[in-house]
DNA sequence: GACCCCAGACGTCAGTGGAG
DNA sequence: CTCCACTGACGTCTGGGGTC
């Protein structure tokens, strides 16, 4: 849903495979919605937080392509079998889950800014009064997902660290609220002991200052990437679940249609 | 309250694939 | 070939719920 959407607004998406999704958000109070849908155009009505999300799905190409050649279907199957990254999958689908719960429903999810790459880094000095963090560096990852990390704000994700005069790194601890700082000596970020252990594992002598700084930066970036990856994976799963719901609904409609036609045929026959 | 279990989130490592 | 982003796997932490 685009950001400025007020009550009674609608978004129209065009996903692949000819699936058009219309999202309508209406305040929960006293609504009477009678979506006009054709027989072969099932609707999904779900409530999301304070809004009713009415999803009208038109599965056009899926039905209309039945008569087309098999090569396209093969192509599609191949693409599915190859299992590309979540980013690619979701970019292709361009239909991020709109039925998200509270955490995501208020975010901008028009399929564009949800999946932009966190590809630019900006280092800025950050004044901080904490003695251990004089010269605190702020690693700002612009274009990062708005829904990622607890310490992300808007479209930027801020990761903070500082390096003391002894070459040691100081990393904020405590999630959203930067409350305490722990010493993270170069090389101390070994698996499993990351933030909880203050004791270095390998001696700093073996690692040049430049090398350790590079390592810390790499870890910071990888940390953020992992967070982003998990978020995308969740969104991907939600997207799949939504599609399952839509297809189940369509299946139900088709079965009912078949049933009605059968009855009609039997009546005519009798 | 103490303990256990479980789900979810996190950070890190290692492997992979694409871009230059 | 190197660099980097992405992602699966692993271990850890944390909060909630259930039981005693």
From TrEMBL:
Residues 87-112 are annotated as: Disordered. One of its GO terms (cellular component) is nucleus. GO terms for molecular function: DNA-binding transcription factor activity, RNA polymerase II-specific; RNA polymerase II cis-regulatory region sequence-specific DNA binding. The keyword Coiled coil applies. Pfam families: bZIP_1, pKID. Keywords: Coiled coil, DNA-binding, Nucleus, Transcription, Transcription regulation. Residues 230-264 form a coiled coil. Its main location: nucleus. InterPro entries: bZIP, bZIP_sf, CREB1-like_pKID, Leuzip_CREB. Residues 212-263 form the BZIP domain. Gene3D superfamilies: 1.20.5.170. It is found in: Nucleus. Residues 53-112 form the KID domain. This is cAMP-response element binding protein 1. It comes from Onchidium reevesii. The lineage of its organism: Eukaryota, Metazoa, Spiralia, Lophotrochozoa, Mollusca.
């Amino acid at each position: 849903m685009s950001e400025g959407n007020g009550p009674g607004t609608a978004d129209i998406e065009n996903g692949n495979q000819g699936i058009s999704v219309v999202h309508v958000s209406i305040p929960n109070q006293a609504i009477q919605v009678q979506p006009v849908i054709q027989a072969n155009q099932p609707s999904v009505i779900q409530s999301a937080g304070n809004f009713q999300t009415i999803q009208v799905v038109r599965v056009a190409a899926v039905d209309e392509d039945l008569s087309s050649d098999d090569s396209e279907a093969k192509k599609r199957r191949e693409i599915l079998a190859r299992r590309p990254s979540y980013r690619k999958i979701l970019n292709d689908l361009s239909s991020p889950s709109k039925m998200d719960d509270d955490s995501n429903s208020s975010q901008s999810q028009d399929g564009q800014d949800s999946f932009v790459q966190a590809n630019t880094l900006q280092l800025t000095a950050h004044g901080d009064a904490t003695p251990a963090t004089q010269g605190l560096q702020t690693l700002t990852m612009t274009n990062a997902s708005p829904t990622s990390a607890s310490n992300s704000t808007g479209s930027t994700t801020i990761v903070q660290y500082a390096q003391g005069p002894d070459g040691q790194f100081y990393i904020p601890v405590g999630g959203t609220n930067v409350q305490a700082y722990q010493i993270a000596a170069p090389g101390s970020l070994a698996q499993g002991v990351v933030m909880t252990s203050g004791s270095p594992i390998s001696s700093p002598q073996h690692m040049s200052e430049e090398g350790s700084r590079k390592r810390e930066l790499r870890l910071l970036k990888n940390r953020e990437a992992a967070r982003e990856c998990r978020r995308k994976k969740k969104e991907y799963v939600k997207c799949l679940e939504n599609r399952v719901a839509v297809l189940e609904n369509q299946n139900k409609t088709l079965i009912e249609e078949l049933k009605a036609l059968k009855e009609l045929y039997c009546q005519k026959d009798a």
